[in-house]
Write a structure and sequence with these properties.
single chain, about 100 residues, mainly beta, Jelly Rolls, two-stranded antiparallel sheet, globular
Length: about 100
């Protein structure tokens, strides 16, 4: 079952720096994948997000649920972060140790 039918890649330095800044929301079913990435911040953001930290093989290392604006979070063993609308990870029932697959 797809966690996010719409995937936005942020694989170059400009896209990684921009992230979700300037947006007022992130649509349900949309994921921003930032790679390589081990930490994120929500300074300047206007909404909370779920942040999923994944290893290179897709294994979920850590999930930060409903991270509000003005925070910093990291998982130094992560290869990528997946940012989604707050509540998505909990609704999908995913947890650390699960494996995500990009198709």
């Amino acid at each position: 079952m797809p966690l996010a039918p719409t995937v936005e890649p942020a694989f170059d330095s400009a896209a990684r720096r921009r992230g979700l800044l300037g947006r007022t929301s992130l649509p349900a079913g949309t994921a921003l994948i930032i790679a390589p990435c081990q930490s994120v911040h929500t300074f300047g953001m206007q909404f909370a997000i779920d942040v999923i930290y994944a290893a290179r093989d897709g294994r979920i290392i850590k999930i930060r649920h409903a991270m509000p604006p003005g925070r910093i979070s990291a998982a130094f063993s992560a290869f990528a972060t997946i940012e989604m609308a707050a509540g998505t990870a909990e609704a999908a029932g995913i947890r650390a140790g699960d494996v995500l697959e990009l198709r």
